[in-house]
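Here's what a typical entry looks like (Pisatin demethylase):
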Amino acid sequence: MSNVLKNESAIDDCTTLLMKRLEEATGAGQDVDLGYWLELYAYNVIGHLLFGRSFGFLESGTDVGSFVESVAASGPLMCLCAVTPSYLRTAILLCAMCIPSTLRNFKAVGATVVEAKNIMQHRMQDSADEAAKRTDILAELLSRASTPGDKTVSGDKAWFTQKEVVLEAWAGIMAGADSVAVNLRAFVYYLMKNPKCMSRAVEEIQNASSQGLLSTPITYHESTKHLPYIGACIKEAARIFPSFANSLARVAPAEGITLSGQYIPSGYRVGINPAFVQHDTDVFGNDAHVFNPERWLESHERTVVMEKSMLFFGAGTRTCVGKNIALTEIHKVAPEILRHFDMHMAHDRPWKTTNTGFNKQRDVIVKLTTRT
């Protein structure tokens, strides 16, 4: 977490710009596609944290290069390939490339790999002093990447090849934004659907602000220390609507394994979906299908038990490496939105969702009013 917080000021810049863009939309008196703006925000932050620069989404207020749209359109195919045996993936991809729209989307997504490679090559030309000043994730990876002699620039044993650094950066772009955007949409959506929870959340922010406990923008430590109910709402939104809703598969070991009395032979893949685990009434109570942030504030003992069943960031050795990045973003921007704006849904329809690994929502259209 300490490495993430080195770049907290970059997240602050994105948060400030998001508030400005939402205020502009409010001033125009129009309904706001808040879900879309949260996606642009998440991509902008990833650009800063990975590469030390913005992708320009918030600055322009648009999907620059149709990248966000292309990632979403490519999701079903990438999800299919992820769950398909490896010997079939090439055939599936070749068939998919015969479809013009799919080919266009993959070219747009592939452009991020090219961009990551170009940035990395420029960084490799930095002087030692220039490299030491950088605190983004790419700089951290490059400090551990091999040069042609299989050593890092400092002469230590390498952890990564340069090719692996490019792929890690690409994976960060592809996975780092959607996980944050889905969680933020769930946070605002369930609060709007539960006015009592919304009132308590806003009251907590206003009380902490009036006591001088919150900066502008709110820091991560301030949010986690002084806004416990906001934290409970964030957890509950992630529990009831996990950002990742696909089987987290593992391979049974050579000797096989017995799970809940069922023997699983060696080599079989066994998985469990966070969307089911996180609705388990044995763990979360008979109201497991209800948005109830208070469950996280009842007792420390119960919270520990429930957190063991929160799998939306994975678990154990396969926990998402970007978990701390995502949590920092969410804990900072979620209360900032409630601090600046009163909001309610602009329609009575439930949101629309599409699950392609990331369980993404659409139609989070809201009416915003700036708080005075």
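The beta strands are 32-33, 250-251, 257-259, 262-264, 269-270, 341-345, 352-356, 358-362, 365-370.

More examples are in the samples folder.
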